């Protein structure tokens, strides 16, 4: 697992990129896949807000690859 030290601005930019790369559409997905997609989107949205607000200084993502991020100021 890779570990990154990012400023808050870079961490937010990274999360925004991840959010934009995750498709919103769930119309053509099976029920289980749609639930997983909605959970992923919810997790990214909450994480993005928490990092922007300074409530989270470290986080881990497992997709598309496992990484740990430490937010620096």
Terminal CA distance reads 23 Å
Number of H/I helices: 2
From the helix content, strand content and strand pairing, which structural class follows? alpha+beta
Q: In percent, how helical is the residue content?
A: 40-55%
Kindly give the count of domains. 1
Q: How many strands, which pairing sense, and closed or not: the largest β-sheet?
A: 3 strands, mixed
SSE arrangement, N to C: EHHEE
| Radius of gyration, in angstroms, nearest whole number | 13 Å
Mean of the pLDDT scores? 88
Bin the strand percentage: 15-25%
Please state how the strands of the largest beta sheet are arranged side by side.
Answer: 1-3-2
Q: How is this structure best summarized?
A:
The protein has 73 residues and is α+β, with helices and mostly antiparallel strands. It has helices at residues 8-21, 31-53, and strands spanning 2-7, 58-61, 67-72.
What key attributes describe this structure?
73 residues, 51% helix, elongated, 3 strands, 22% strand, alpha+beta, 3-stranded mixed sheet, 2 helices
Structural write-up:
This protein is an alpha+beta fold and 73 residues long. It has one domain (2-72). It is built from two helices and three strands. It has helices at residues 8-21, 31-53, and strands at 2-7, 58-61, 67-72. Strands 1-3-2 form a three-stranded mixed beta sheet. β2 (58-61) and β3 form a beta hairpin. The longest helix is centred in the middle third of the chain and has 23 residues, at 31-53. The radius of gyration is 13 Å and the shape is elongated.
């Amino acid at each position: 697992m890779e570990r990154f030290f990012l400023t808050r601005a870079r961490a937010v930019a990274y999360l925004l990129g991840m959010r934009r790369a995750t498709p919103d559409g769930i119309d053509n997905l099976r029920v289980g896949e749609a639930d997983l997609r909605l959970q992923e989107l919810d997790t990214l949205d909450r994480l993005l807000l928490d990092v922007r607000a300074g409530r989270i200084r470290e986080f881990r993502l497992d997709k598309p690859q496992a990484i740990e991020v430490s937010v620096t100021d």
